[in-house]
Amino acid sequence: MKILITGASGFIGRKTLEFLKEEYYNDEIIAFSSSKINGVKTVFHNNYKFDDNYLSENGCSNVDVLIHIGAFIPKLSTEANDIEQNNLNIINTQKLLTSLASVKKIIFISTVDIYGIDEIITEKTLESPVSLYGWSKLYCEKMVEQYAKQNNIPYQILRLGHVFGPGEEKYKKILPITIKKVLNGETVEIWGDGQAIRTFIYIDDVAKAIVNSIGLNESNIINIVGEEQVTIKQLVDNIIELSDKNIKVKYISSNTPNRNLIFDNSKLKKYLLSDLTKFQAGLQNEYEYMRACS
Hints:
Blueprint: E1 3-6, H1 11-23, E2 29-33, E3 41-44, H2 54-57, E4 65-68, H3 83-99, E5 105-111, H4 132-150, E6 155-160, E7 162-164, H5 174-183, E8 188-191, E9 197-202, H6 203-212, E10 220-224, E11 229-231, H7 232-243, E12 249-252, H8 266-271, H9 279-293
Parallel strand pairs: 1-2, 1-4, 2-3, 4-5, 5-6, 6-10, 7-9, 8-12
Antiparallel strand pairs: 9-11
């Protein structure tokens, strides 16, 4: 079997590659990346500026499974509606599909940002993105689905939730931002009353689920999401407790109503991963990682 993984040097791709190497021989894995990946064959994506023959000419003519992780992901909320960057998600996915004529299965990494508002988000929740990023990923999903149907091959669409763990510090998200402030002894700011609920899933669990999806024979859409619900206030309190520091918390008034992000992960646990990393254990891992790097 030949497996091509895109985004292999990114937050999720790097960890997925680790688990791929545990399950498959190194010569079965091809990393599509901007930089050299040790231990496996690397094909440079050159910012996706290549012709339709590029992949076949570089040893990808017999790829069986495409794991498409590589994408533009907003690091700041202001980037979520960047027209040019989000359009690249669509253009680059199309380029991959037209360049891999022999692929027998596609695993596309999407996002829960494609959903609208629901009390509990499931795979049946209405698709109603609120950003160009969400729309770009939803359009890519539809492309993958149509390509797979036209070529009579199975596909997996894995919609990732709020992934956390070592390596996410490049993103301006609440968890790494809070850890950094606590490590520096700075005041932590909470917008609103801190009662908004979030549901996180640890990076190792996400990577395992992606690798396990290779073994699914039927096409599926599965939310890769956690199950432990924590409020923003609880999240901040837990990080401060790990630090054993006297950190001040400042509440900033906000007119934006709380949106609780709660998921049903029954399909994940049925098909891909029966046990998940406990939130507190994953949080401690990330805290210790960021402390060691500071």
